[in-house]
Amino acid sequence: MCLAIPGKVLDVFPGMPCLATVEVAGVRRKVDLGLLENDMPKSGDWVLIHVGFAMSKISEKDALDQMQTLIMLGESEQAIQEVQGYGLESVEEPPQ
Amino acid sequence: MRFVDEFRDPDVINKTADEIRRLADPGRHYRLMEVCGGHTHAIYRFGLKDILPDNIELIHGPGCPVCVLPMGRIDDGLALAEDPNVIFAAFGDMMRVPGVHGSPLERKARGMDVRIVYSPSDALKLAKTNPDKHVMFFAIGFETTAPSSALTILRAKAEGIHNFSLFCNHVTIIPAIRAILDSPDMRLDAFIGPGHVSTVIGCRPYEWIAANERKPIVVSGFEPLDMLQSIVMLLRQLKAGEARVENQYKRVVPWEGNRAALKAMAEVFELRPYFEWRGLGFISQSALRIRNNYAEWDSEQRFTVPGVRVTDPKAAQCGEVLKGVLKPAQCKLFGKECTPEHPVGALMVSSEGSCAAYFNYEHRKAMATTLARPA
Q1: What is the mean pLDDT of the segment spanning B223-251?
Q2: Is A88 within 8 Å of chain B by CB?
Q3: What would the pLDDT profile of B291-321 be if each residue is shown by its tens digit?
Q4: Residue from A49, A25, A24, A23 nearest A33 by CA
Q5: Which of A35, A66, A83 would best serve as a mutation to test chain B binding (most B beta carbons within 10 A)?
Q6: Domain end (from B313, B331, B353)
Q7: Same domain assignment for residues B155 and B141
């Protein structure tokens, strides 16, 4: 719950809710961008995710460092498990 | 320094550790509180205690939301979920937390509809896919998770989803720090400020700690180097007789916080007059509740909550450990009646609780050493 999980934004689907496909260590899931409405990420940006919501934009280097920290803390598997658990896909199917 | 070689930039780590030794006055004992449970976990996991000089003591603060939740709140939430039309949804962290009549996982084994979710949005999705049921999301966390709960309620309203409600247990970090500072037996020199909470609230809310209490505070990241650098920054302030708020975690934490997150929280939540914290007792204006405008999505306004109160066993000295008066192992129950497998007190409940972290890393290590020693 308190994990900050770094992910790379692949696609942004504007709307309500504003979702994005984000890749975390090879796993692709939808996350909600609503908490970054003042500084909306675009494709290629990196974000820190808390409980399915992107909370801050970070640099690629910091994102990779953060993943390394999770590995060192022994929490990387838990992070992947959490991301895999996000069931946001069918909330509102984005246009293809 | 057992882990230093595994860290990134071991040379920088060693130089930072040297700087800490240079700055620390050997005639003084420093008591620094890390507020966040994530920092507590990292300190034990990385063995940072072994890097620091003996006269720098790290005190583990109240920043583990699972630990500080009174048992009665869990019983209240589970009582509502005894209705077969209710689905009880919560983060995985909550599943093994004991209530008087068992943990959510034990209640699930006895037939209750309990689901693990990884995001409040998932709970909302459950409501959509189970229109004949009511989904109650048991929300916990500090300002790190509260904005996501707020946004989920806004989404529920916007989408007209009426079979969803949130049982709000969100707490706020500043009043807990204030309660610790107001305690007569408090003996702290400075604070390592929480990283991810500060992503949301920014650094300004800590300014009173520096201005009024004359305690330095440095908002810190979670890597070993982050925490060591934060300790350097605190020691520099203490040496110069200063008390300021500094931000070591600038790469993630903006000084002003996340405005969209604060806006969502202000729209949906208001402060409760008071709330009970395990180990600390009742603290005024320390928790959030859902505003009347969103009563339909508030489990407590929508249903009748029993209001269960469970007193922690008197022998458990969680409050003293939280305030830094006692070390985890100095509690009478530590490692005996109270273990991570069978937690009696608040701080043994979650892996981010100071007693559980101490038990998992220090106590087990000591036990292994004892067992390995030839008779």
Answers
A1: 96
A2: yes
A3: 999 999 999 999 999 998 888 778 888 888 8
A4: A49
A5: A35
A6: B313
A7: yes
Interface contact A85-B121, CB threshold 8 A: no
* Chain A contact set for B261 (CB, 8 A): 35, 55
Model confidence over A58-92: pLDDT tens digits? 999 999 988 888 888 888 888 888 888 887 664 44
Best CA proximity match to B358, nearest among B347, B369, B368? B347
Domain count for chain B: 2
B69 versus B324: the higher-pLDDT residue is B69
- Whether residue B375 is contained in a domain is answered as no
User: Minimal Cα–Cα distance from A94 to chain B, Å?
Assistant: 15
pLDDT band at B251 (very low <50, low <70, confident <90, very high): very high
Beta carbons of B121 and A53 less than 8 Å apart: yes
3-state secondary structure of B3: coil
Give the closest of A52, A59, A73 to B121, CB-based: A52
Residues of A in contact with B155 (CB under 8 A): 16-17
* C-alpha span between B334 and B340 (Å, rounded): 10
Contact A1 B91 (CB under 8 A): yes
Using only C-alpha atoms, chain B has a radius of gyration, in whole angstroms, of 21
| B48 three-class SS | helix
Of B11, B119, B29, whose CA–CA distance to A49 is shortest? B119
